[in-house]
Amino acid sequence: MKKIVITGLTVFMVFLLAVPAFAAAGSSLGTKAVMSPQFQHIWQMSAGLGIDSSGKAHCTGSADVASTTYKANLTVSLQKNTNGSWSTVKMWTGSAVGPGLVVQGDYYVTGGTYRACSTVQVYSSAGTLIETESLYSAEKTY
């Protein structure tokens, strides 16, 4: 019985800690930052940015929270560096109760250096904000 429980817990943990893949063959897509697990109520979060040869930026972010009763708000921002200062060009948002939240979007950029920022806000089942964290992708120049 003990062996079955340990095996079941191992399989369960493997599925919970799986990180979504982000890749594209033959393009500049695929730069992604992943944090897992570093926070109190966030099990995993990621921020990814790819820019193809036509200037189409693909931003993606994901978050997994520690309880199925927690609500997560995820904002993914495309940011541009202008003279050393980062400004938001485009933003996408989503929310869900429990783990498994993914937000993504596309936007055509002009020349410059860009990054994606994922910001996760976690709310308890009572509606109280209990954690906010941000994560940035690697920078991409177009």
Give a description of the structure.
- By secondary structure, this protein is mainly β.
- It has one domain (28-141): Sandwich (Immunoglobulin-like), CATH 2.60.40.10.
- It has one helix and nine strands.
- It has one helix spanning 2-16, and strands at 31-35, 42-51, 56-65, 71-82, 85-97, 101-108, 113-123, 129-136, 140-141.
- The strands form two sheets. Strands 4, 5, 7, 8 and 9 form a five-stranded antiparallel β-sheet that branches.
- Strand 4 (71-82) and strand 5 (85-97) form a beta hairpin.
- The N and C termini lie far apart (57 Å).
- Residues 2-29 have low confidence and may be disordered.
- Keywords: Signal.
Taking all Cα atoms into account, the compactness measure Rg is 17 Å
**What fraction of residues sit in β-strands?**
over 45%
**Residue share in helices?**
10-25%
- CATH-level-4 superfamily name: Immunoglobulins
Global outline: elongated
Total E-strand runs:
9
CATH topology: Immunoglobulin-like
**Whole-number mean pLDDT:** 82
> Could you give a short account of the major beta sheet?
5 strands, antiparallel
> What is the H/E string?
HEEEEEEEEE
List keywords for this structure.
disordered N terminus; mainly beta; 1 helix; elongated; 56% strand; 142 residues; Immunoglobulin-like; single chain; 5-stranded antiparallel beta sheet
Concise description?
The chain has 142 residues and is mainly beta.
What's the structural blueprint in terms of helices and strands?
Blueprint: H1 2-16, E1 31-35, E2 42-51, E3 56-65, E4 71-82, E5 85-97, E6 101-108, E7 113-123, E8 129-136, E9 140-141
Signal peptide: 1-23
Keywords: Signal
